[in-house]
């Protein structure tokens, strides 16, 4: 097990300041390996003593041992990556199989990380919500649109928060204790997402989050959080697992009142039939 994996396992037991150090160590190992403790603390925004206490919390003798462990991991990762070939731009006979199997692995990893009690609680939140706000930008936008569409198909009142200040302010002002904020945050750029989540938390909004890391800062504010995807998987690849999890959560929501949600599916089917009939009639008249 690499040192960063050990940090992730102990992350929940660390203090808030030590968690900042832990996240920085995982995301910036090269900086830790080449800078002294005081410099790292200044970059993170914590004291040097907090960096040292993090080392002790990880059962290390001090910062020097931390650097030794990080350097060892970096050296091993270079050996591994040297023998790997990027799939981007690569054409071969079984490319489709390689990519789809990677998606399967991503979904299987997600299943193993799901807590059944948290899953059930999330489905209740969705079922009982007066209005559900969906949030996800950049590479998470496709999964957020999928989530919004799925909820709308079952008659839920849903608002997808747009990426502009005016819409963000308007939607946050409308949130109350009957609201649910469903966040999909698979990106490394989280400043805007974190701001919205913090404001929603202050209004006592119930927050469900899907992230691609067990140490994502979004999880500190979410009532319920899930991890989607495989380790070190980029947001675009983790979307497949996130979509599968969204599908499962929405299906779980419908089990709390099968007849109610089935009614909306039937109405949508009738509307589709009516629109197809109208389209055919219009084409015939032309």
From TrEMBL:
Gene3D superfamilies: Glucose-6-phosphate isomerase like protein, domain 1 (3.40.50.10490), Winged helix-like DNA-binding domain superfamily/Winged helix DNA-binding domain (1.10.10.10)
Domain HTH rpiR-type residue range list: 1-77
Recorded superkingdom: Bacteria
PROSITE patterns with a match to the protein in the record: HTH_RPIR
Pfam families in the record: HTH_6, SIS
GO biological process, one term: carbohydrate derivative metabolic process
Single GO MF annotation: DNA binding
Name used for this protein in its record: DNA-binding MurR/RpiR family transcriptional regulator
Upper classification of the organism: Bacteria, Bacillati, Bacillota, Bacilli, Bacillales
């Amino acid at each position: 097990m690499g040192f960063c994996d050990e940090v992730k396992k102990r992350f929940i037991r660390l203090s808030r300041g030590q968690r900042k150090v832990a996240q920085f160590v995982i995301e910036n190992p090269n900086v830790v390996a080449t800078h002294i403790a005081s410099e790292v603390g200044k970059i993170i925004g914590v004291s040097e003593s907090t960096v040292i206490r993090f080392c002790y919390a990880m059962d290390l003798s001090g910062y020097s041992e931390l650097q030794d462990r990080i350097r060892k991991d970096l050296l091993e990762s270079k050996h591994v990556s040297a023998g790997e070939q990027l799939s981007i731009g690569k054409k071969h006979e079984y490319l489709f199989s390689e990519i789809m199997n990677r998606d399967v692995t991503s979904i299987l990893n997600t299943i193993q990380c799901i807590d059944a009690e948290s899953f059930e609680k999330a489905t209740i939140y969705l079922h009982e919500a007066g209005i559900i706000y969906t949030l996800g930008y950049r590479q998470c936008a496709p999964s957020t649109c999928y989530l919004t569409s799925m909820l709308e198909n079952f008659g839920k009142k849903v608002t997808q928060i747009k990426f502009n200040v005016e819409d963000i302010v308007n939607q946050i002002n409308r949130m109350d204790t009957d609201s649910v904020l469903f966040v999909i945050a698979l990106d490394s750029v989280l400043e805007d997402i974190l701001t919205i989540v913090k404001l929603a938390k202050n209004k006592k909004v119930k927050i469900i989050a899907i992230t691609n890391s067990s140490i994502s800062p979004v999880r500190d504010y979410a009532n319920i959080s899930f991890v989607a995807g495989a380790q070190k998987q980029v947001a675009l690849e983790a979307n497949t697992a996130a979509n599968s999890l969204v599908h499962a959560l929405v299906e779980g929501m419908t089990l709390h009142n099968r007849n109610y949600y089935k009614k909306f599916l039937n109405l949508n089917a009738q509307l589709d039939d009516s629109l197809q009939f109208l389209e055919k009639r219009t084409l015939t008249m032309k």
